[in-house]
Amino acid sequence: MRHRETADCVVVGGGPAGAGAAENIARLAPKKNVILLEKRARPHGTCAGGVGFNWIEEMGMKLPASVIETPIKEVQVHGPTESASIHADDLGRPELGAVLDRWGFDEWLLCKAIAEGADVRRNNHFDDLKRENGKWLVKAHNADGEYEVLTDYVIDASGPTAVVAKRLGFKIDEEPQDVHVGLQWTVPLPEPIPIERLELWFKRDPTQEPNGNWACKTGYIWSFTSRHPYWDGGNPVKAGRYTRLGIGVDMEHNRMPGRSAKECLQQFQATHPEYAGPTVSENGGLIPTGVPLQTAFENIFVVGDAGRHVSALHGGGIWFGRVAGEEAGKTVARGGSAEDYERGWTSRIGWTLRMHYALKKVLYNLDNREIDIMIKEMGAFRVTSSDAQVEIPRLAMHVAKHPVLGGKFAVKTFLEMAKGAVA
Ligand SMILES: Cc1cc2nc3c(=O)[nH]c(=O)nc-3n(C[C@H](O)[C@H](O)[C@H](O)COP(=O)(O)OP(=O)(O)OC[C@H]3O[C@@H](n4cnc5c(N)ncnc54)[C@H](O)[C@@H]3O)c2cc1C
Fold first, then answer.
1. Measured in angstroms, how far is the CA atom of residue 138 from the centroid of ligand 1?
2. I need a surface site. Which of 89, 124, 140, 186 has the fewest CB within 10 A?
3. What residues make up the domain containing 87?
4. Ligand 1 cavity residues, CB under 6 Å
5. How many Å lie between the centroid of ligand 1 and the Cα of residue 15?
6. Residue 301 sits in a domain of what CATH number?
7. Distances (CA, A) of 185 to 189, 230, 256
8. Tell me: the pLDDT tens digits for 21-36?
């Protein structure tokens, strides 16, 4: 006979979304009992760790210095021939954002949830759930064996695998074009590139020069600098100058002969030998780049990557997941409904997620020349804040004025695509 417990809420997954949900429930409703199940000893940490400071400010967080690997002062964006950059000085800010130590950051978030009173259980694996007397019976296991928790609410924060949502047959977008394969290699950062600079490369057509035959039609290559050579187990070895050279391409692209994420990254290194230093560590994972379709059913709320709360445009999901987690937590704390939760996250990030999805579709349709034009326009564009939620649509409107790109960025096309994203 399995051991049985009761709870007000079970959260599955201890990443930013799950920790945010658990912390909010425990803080806002201290009498409620929230159990967080995390299957690993520590959350997984597969990430480039890039965040904008406006996100952190919006979340009301004061990040401890220990979780910031590198403050970012400059972002450079490269097309096949053009480049543009944004510098923190242009905005009168000390930094634009940061590269986080994802292991440290996730650990810090979990500790915040524990400090508020959440029952965080590492090495505890969610297995299954079913309805019982109007509640949910969650089945889990750990090293001591199997157990059950009878609970009012379940929050699925299990990342791209969305274990609860899939078990219950939620509508989840898993089209190969809307799931990206992310891969990154930690390599020495070439001299004299400053560690405070983050770089992105876009190139669509592999046959076009310059820069040889590398290309990723449905994504981009990034360099997110790091002071730590590790990314495998969370144990810093020694500080230095490194970068996580990464790539995201959609699943369809990844299956094309010679065009997999790994091959594209190798082709990039062949034409950028300064980034081809010995690989110190590597990791990767799936990045959902669709839009949320169904994120709640009765008292089951799906948050973060599991709920597709990720920017389809750049693949960043730390902030979006955290916002969704907060909204789920607040809803549980006040005994709210599926509609309350969906209204909560939609009002904060719904439009942005749809807009990013529409922009992703536009970007994938640009050829090399159009990418260069877009980057040239970026160079001429005056950024007025570090808030990507504000600046990305402003930039799209600016680019839409260009005679070559106007059709693709036309407001009408764009709004129709954004609307279609939730159909
Ligand atoms: C290569 C790569 C680079 C990225 N770079 C960035 C970036 O620079 N900036 C950014 O904002 N985002 C980035 N992302 C995306 C970001 O990592 C995710 O959006 C973010 O981690 C989502 O948080 P989450 O809490 O929803 O899920 P996760 O962080 O995936 O956490 C889910 C947790 O659930 C646990 N879990 C899963 N199944 C079970 C189970 N059955 N029982 C118990 N626990 C379970 C997992 O162990 C995991 O710890 C990147 C992703 C990848 C793959």
1. 22
2. 89
3. 71-100+175-288
4. 12-18, 37-40, 43-44, 46-51, 125-126, 157-159, 161, 163, 182, 184, 246, 284-285, 287, 304-306, 310, 315-318, 321
5. 6
6. 3.50.50.60
7. 11, 10, 21
8. 999 999 999 999 999 9
